[in-house]
Design brief:
0% strand; 77 residues; single chain
Amino acid sequence: NFHHLIVRPLFEQRPYREFRLEKELAEIEDDIQADIATIVSETKKEAEQGEISGHQIMRTIDRVWKNLKTTRLELWG
């Protein structure tokens, strides 16, 4: 799901060859990793008995959307 929701839209919007520098691509990869960590840690705070559901992940994304680093790319509106 992550690939279809995050990685694929990113590369469909801006194919790899359009990234000017490998540094820019590395920064985006770092932002993706940071967003994953944020989403997982925020979801764990609300998870019951240590289990995380897809529904909880989606609620967390909705709640922390404005704080995610990859939203600066404006791929999802």
